Write a sequence for this structure.
């Protein structure tokens, strides 16, 4: 059962960003889910479904890719780690793109949920980026003879991890939380320039990392029996990312509301 909140009631406490309906001529349509009750009613029923489907698809994709898909003709069974590495890389990059969009909404339209969404995307995106780097190192060890090289693709993905961690740190670096949200939003926007660098690094510089094997505009270089489990894992990772972010946002809203109610009760008891 989702708790209903008053339509105009701010959900602010302990210096957190206010969640209230912001009425403005510019971008007013963006605030339809700014009310906490409306947002909770929308996301809470779908979070279990997203989580369940993500779990099932992850198991199916990994079992399919690791046990039934054929080994690569050059890299052998080690190439099967791509079913984790590649989806994690895609989710890490697109997760930061979502963080940058939230930062834009925060700076330009002052959307009440944008700062909170960016706040909760950060740790999840950092986790997927770390997973990408770890699996990439394990994948590269048999072929490169080392777990790490200062390659353009690897270095730019490492910078992506630092951008996520920097965003998380900036949110907590100021006594006034609003200053932290503004600084983190600026970093989120500026850091987006790293995304095309990651994508095109294998073409702009000499790189040990292989080029893109999957293309949306032409034939893919990966055989269909390996491509299908990879796509299943990709869908699973995206759903898992979305489920975790929505769950974190929902939890943050409930925590902040509870904190506000406790603070109001304490102030009422003193008066």
């Amino acid at each position: 059962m989702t708790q209903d909140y008053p339509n105009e009631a701010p959900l602010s406490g302990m210096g957190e960003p206010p969640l209230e309906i912001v009425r403005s001529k510019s971008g007013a349509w963006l605030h339809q889910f700014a009310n906490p009750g409306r947002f909770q009613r929308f996301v809470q029923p779908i979070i279990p479904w997203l989580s369940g489907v993500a779990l099932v698809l992850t198991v199916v994709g990994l079992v399919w890719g690791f046990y039934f898909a054929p080994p690569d003709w050059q890299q052998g069974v080690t190439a099967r780690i791509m079913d984790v590495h590649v989806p994690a890389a895609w989710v890490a990059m697109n997760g930061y793109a979502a963080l940058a969009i939230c930062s834009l909404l925060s700076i330009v339209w002052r959307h009440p949920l944008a700062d909170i969404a960016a706040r909760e995307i950060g740790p999840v995106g950092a986790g997927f980026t770390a997973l990408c780097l770890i699996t990439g190192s394990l994948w590269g060890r048999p072929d490169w003879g080392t777990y790490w090289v200062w390659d353009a693709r690897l270095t730019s993905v490492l910078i992506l991890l630092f951008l996520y961690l920097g965003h998380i740190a900036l949110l907590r670096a100021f006594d006034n939380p609003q200053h932290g949200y503004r600084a983190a939003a600026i970093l989120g926007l500026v850091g987006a320039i790293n995304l095309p660098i990651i994508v095109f690094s294998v073409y702009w510089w000499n790189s040990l990392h292989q080029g893109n094997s999957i293309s949306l505009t032409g034939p893919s270089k990966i055989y269909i029996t390996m491509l299908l489990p990879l796509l299943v894992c990709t869908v699973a990772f995206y759903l898992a990312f979305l489920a975790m972010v929505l769950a974190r946002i929902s939890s943050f809203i409930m925590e902040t509301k509870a904190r506000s109610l406790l603070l109001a009760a304490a102030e009422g008891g003193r008066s």
In short: Confidence is low (pLDDT under 50) at residues 1-27.
